[in-house]
Specification:
By secondary structure, this protein is of the alpha/beta class. It has a single domain, classed as Ribokinase (UDP-N-acetylmuramoyl-L-alanine:D-glutamate ligase, 3-Layer(aba) Sandwich). The chain is 36% helix and 23% strand. Strands 1, 4, 5, 6, 9, 10, 11, 12, 13, 14 and 15 form an eleven-stranded mixed β-sheet that branches. Strand 4, helix 2 and strand 5 form a beta-alpha-beta unit. The termini are far apart.
Length: 317
């Protein structure tokens, strides 16, 4: 199979419609006036699939999707050429609110819990994942789990995919991430807060973060990426520990930037890039998303230009 045509499937058990509203000088407890607003079908895996489709990869999506407002997602999938294998369930997919403040350069997120998943719905999702495995050598399993889904779900799912020879990137947090680690996914991408929660300890500075990532590598994970906001991201595997530092930009929104980094990482890994080149491309893809309102990327030419501006240096942890 041509590397550039390797197909990727994403699993989003708890998708969301992201309502992004722009409010200058947003203040709690006061009257705030909205400058603009937009709604985007999302959820971490949906975003990753959309980004990978933009980068030229065949993609499929599955998860649990409320029937009553599924059209938002269906339009996106049709537009991007994404194969839709979502399990439809009764009710409405949640709406999450993102408040962007361009003056203070802050994003406030209000995330709703999502639908309650029935046992039959989860079983149907598991069947969809198994049905996708023959045609999709890469899987991205990401996001939170809705009520009704045990945290052990991700661990079982990763183990099933690995047993079939699939490469799995797990991007979650809390108990869902913790439960998935014993199955040793190919890669994970926590931010600093998620990594600290996972390990139950504060991490101060690059060296401590790198050592924490190294512990996870020693536990069987091939690659750990720790996103650190404006400071960049750490990329760690068994042989190297690299810090990718992005250029200074004015961020329009942070919505989807982490998912763009995951998409960039998967794309670079499929291409067989070195860890340093993976770090450059994944970070450039994330920076590209920061310059957009809503989860979308800049042009390939812009991403390539950004890649040239990423500084990658080795850390000795």
């Amino acid at each position: 199979m041509n590397q550039s045509r390797v197909a990727v499937a994403t699993v989003t058990v708890n998708p969301a419609i992201d309502q992004t509203v722009a409010i200058a000088n947003f203040s709690t407890g006061d009257v705030n006036r909205v400058e603009s607003e937009r709604c985007d079908p999302g959820g971490k895996g949906v975003n990753v699939a959309a980004f990978l489709a933009d980068l030229g990869f065949p993609t499929a999506v599955t998860g649990l999707l409320g029937r009553e407002n599924a059209s938002y997602f269906e339009q996106l999938f049709a537009h991007k050429g994404i194969v839709d294998r979502f399990v439809r369930v009764p009710g409405r997919t949640r709406v999450n609110v993102k408040i962007t403040d361009r003056v203070r350069r802050r994003v406030t997120e209000i995330n709703f819990p999502g639908l309650h998943a029935a046992t039959a719905d989860v079983a149907a999702l598991e069947r969809e994942v198994v049905a996708l495995m023959p045609d999709y050598p890469w899987f991205v399993v990401s996001g939170s789990l809705p009520a009704g889904v045990d945290p052990s779900f991700y661990g079982k799912l990763v183990a099933t995919l690995k047993a079939a020879g699939r490469r799995v990137v797990l991007d979650s947090s809390g108990e869902a991430l913790r439960a998935g680690l014993p199955a040793s996914p190919f890669a994970i991408k926590p931010n600093i807060a998620e990594l600290q929660e996972l390990l139950g300890t504060a991490l101060n500075g690059e060296v401590e973060i790198a050592r924490a990532a190294r512990q996870l590598i020693d536990g069987g994970i091939h690659c750990v990426v720790v996103s650190m906001g404006r400071a960049g991201a750490l990329f760690v595997d068994a042989g190297e520990c690299l810090l990718a530092e992005p250029p200074e930009i004015v961020a329009e929104s942070t919505v989807g930037a982490g998912d763009a980094m995951v998409a960039g990482l998967v794309a670079a890994k499929i291409h067989g890039d070195s860890l340093a080149d993976c770090a450059r491309y994944a970070t450039a893809t994330a920076v590209s998303a920061l310059g957009q309102l809503g989860p979308r990327l800049s042009s390939p030419r812009t991403i390539d230009a950004l890649r040239q501006q990423i500084v990658v240096r080795s850390l000795h942890d």
